[in-house]
């Protein structure tokens, strides 16, 4: 953001989704304050329509059209960590740039999960971690993409020794000569353990044929899990959550991730009802006791994400069956 967020008196806003991952929110607010601006005025957070859980494409584009002349940078998650929504990255990028905005992406939950064509989509820049779908483990090295159209512009950056041209790096010159492209943003040499763990994962991705066959398998697994979950007598359609009495009484769950497979990755986010009742934590603990390792996001969401490299259709069946069993135990 230091390199790409360059606010002016008339174009200074950041457009993002509401409830972005906290570290993103911290970065947005701190960048705005560093430029002497008020986050309350400079950060535009898009919220879903009343009674809905995810953003509509037309609402994002309408906001860009309405606010575009005041937006300096558009920063969305590729796949939203809480809801699992995969945003239409190419469409948002092209519309933002047509209005004079820089467009960057947080791909922490997208890389290794969904197919990405950052160069072809014209994305200005993107960042991601590797410890989620790329399996590098906690503390794994991060990744950065910068479109080649920025190479000649040489955006300002915090220079680091490892980003200097290798040909002159060991000449210990006092002036920084960056490697062309994203590599010029490197700060220091990475840990050999972090590199080794990521290398092993990337080799597995290569052996699996990379993202096209992996995505096909992912669609099969997540689609199957979705069908099984919707067969539960405790399932409530997302459109009915705010119109039925379920939220005020008996335990149940809905899926807040988009139904359209092209608008999601591997993840399904289950919202447990009644909201705010604490039932989610009880269910997550019970699932763990049955060997189902899910991921809780307080106050009410559990994320289930079949991993196409190593999960099976049988795993999906077991997970859905265990969830049903947990509900039966909870309600009786």
Record the SSE blueprint.
Blueprint: E1 13-17, H1 22-34, H2 39-42, E2 43-46, H3 57-67, E3 71-77, H4 89-98, E4 102-106, H5 118-121, E5 125-128, E6 143-146, H6 166-169, H7 192-207, H8 211-230, E7 252-255, E8 268-273, H9 279-289, E9 295-297, E10 301-304, H10 313-331
Parallel strand pairs: 1-2, 1-3, 3-4, 4-5
Antiparallel strand pairs: 5-6, 7-8, 8-10, 9-10
Helix pairs in contact: 8-10
GO molecular function, one term: kynureninase activity
Keywords: Hydrolase, Pyridine nucleotide biosynthesis, Pyridoxal phosphate
Protein name: Related to Kynureninase
Strand order of the largest sheet: 2-1-3-4-5-6
Cα gyration radius (Å):
22 Å
CATH class category name of the largest domain: Alpha Beta
Amino-to-carboxy terminus distance: 52 Å
Task: Give the overall silhouette.
Answer: globular
Query: Which regions are unreliable across 5 or more consecutive residues at pLDDT < 50?
Result: none
CATH topology of the largest domain: Aspartate Aminotransferase, domain 2
CATH architecture of the largest domain, please? Answer: 3-Layer(aba) Sandwich
Q: Helix tally?
A: 10
- Percent of residues in helices: 25-40%
Structural class: alpha/beta
How many separate structural domains? 2
| Major beta sheet summary | 6 strands, mixed
Task: Count the E strands.
Answer: 10
SSE sequence, one letter per element: EHHEHEHEHEEHHHEEHEEH
Corresponding CATH superfamily of the largest domain: Type I PLP-dependent aspartate aminotransferase-like (Major domain)
β-strand percent reads 5-15%
**Average pLDDT metric:** 95
């Amino acid at each position: 953001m230091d390199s790409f967020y360059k606010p002016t008196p008339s174009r200074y806003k950041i457009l993002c989704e509401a409830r972005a991952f906290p570290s993103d929110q911290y970065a947005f607010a701190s960048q705005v304050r560093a430029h002497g601006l008020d986050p309350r005025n400079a950060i535009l957070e898009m919220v879903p329509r009343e009674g809905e859980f995810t953003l509509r494409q037309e609402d994002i584009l309408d906001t860009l059209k309405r606010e575009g002349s005041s937006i300096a940078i558009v920063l969305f998650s590729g796949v939203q960590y809480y809801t699992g929504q995969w945003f239409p990255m190419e469409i948002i990028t092209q519309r933002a740039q047509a209005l004079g905005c820089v467009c960057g992406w947080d791909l922490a939950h997208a890389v290794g999960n969904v197919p990405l064509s950052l160069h072809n989509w014209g994305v200005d820049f993107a960042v991601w971690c590797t410890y989620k779908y790329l399996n590098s483990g906690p503390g794994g090295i991060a990744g950065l993409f910068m479109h080649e159209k920025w190479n000649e512009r040489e955006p300002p950056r915090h220079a680091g020794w490892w980003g200097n041209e290798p040909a002159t790096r060991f000449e210990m010159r006092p002036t920084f000569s960056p490697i062309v492209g994203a590599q010029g943003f490197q700060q220091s040499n990475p840990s050999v353990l972090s590199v080794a763990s990521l290398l092993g994962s990337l080799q597995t991705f290569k052996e699996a044929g990379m993202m096209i066959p992996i995505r096909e398998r992912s669609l099969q697994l997540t689609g199957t899990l979705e069908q099984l979950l919707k067969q539960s007598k405790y399932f409530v359609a997302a459109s009915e959550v705010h119109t039925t009495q379920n939220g005020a009484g008996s335990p149940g769950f809905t899926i807040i991730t988009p139904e359209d497979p092209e608008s999601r990755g591997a993840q399904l986010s289950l919202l447990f009802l009644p909201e705010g009742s604490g039932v989610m934590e009880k269910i997550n603990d019970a699932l763990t006791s049955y060997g189902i390792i899910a991921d809780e996001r307080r106050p009410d969401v559990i994320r289930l994400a079949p991993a196409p490299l190593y999960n099976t259709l049988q795993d999906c069946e077991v997970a859905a069956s265990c969830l049903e069993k947990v509900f039966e135990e909870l309600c009786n």
